[in-house]
Amino acid sequence: MINLNNNILSDFDFKQLNSSDFKEDSVREVIILPILKKLGYTNQNIVRSKTLQHPFVKIGSQKRKINIVPDYLLKSENNYAWVLDAKNPSEEIKQGNNVEQIYSYSIHPEIRTKYFSLCNGKEFILFRQDIENPVLYFEITDISRYWQKLEQILSPSSFQSGKTFSYNFIKEKEFSKDYGDFDYLNRPLLDEIPVRKQAAKRHFGVHGYFTKQAWNVVQTYIKNFTKPGDLVLDPFAGSGVTAIEAMMTDRKAINVDLNPMAVFLVDSLTAPVKIKDLNSAFERAVNAFKKDCPDTKSKIKKALDKYPYPKGFILPKGSDVDTIEKLFSPKQLAQLAFLKHSINIEEDINTRKSLLLVFSSTITKINLTYHNSSTRDENAGNAAPFAYYRYRIASKNIDLDLVNSFTTKYKRLVNAKRDIESKINSETIGNLQVIKDTATDLNWIKNETVDYIYTDPPYGKKIPYLDLSVMWNAWLDLEVTNKDYELEAIEGGEHNKSKDEYNYLISKSIEEMYRVLKFDRWMSFVFAHKDPEFWHLIVDTAERAGFEYAGAVKQDNGQTSFKKRQNPFTVLAGQLIINFKKVRKPKSILKANLGMGISEIILQTIEGVIAQHNGATLEQINNELVIKGLELGFLDLLKKEYSDLTPLLMEMFDYDDEPQKFKLKKDNKFRTNIDLNLRIKYYLISFLRRRELEKKPPTFDEIVFNIMPLLKNGITPEHQTILNVLTTIAEHVGHDHWKLQEKSQLTLFGI
Question: Which of 52, 336, 471, 571 has an alpha carbon 20 to 30 Å from 38's alpha carbon atom?
Answer without folding.
Answer: 52
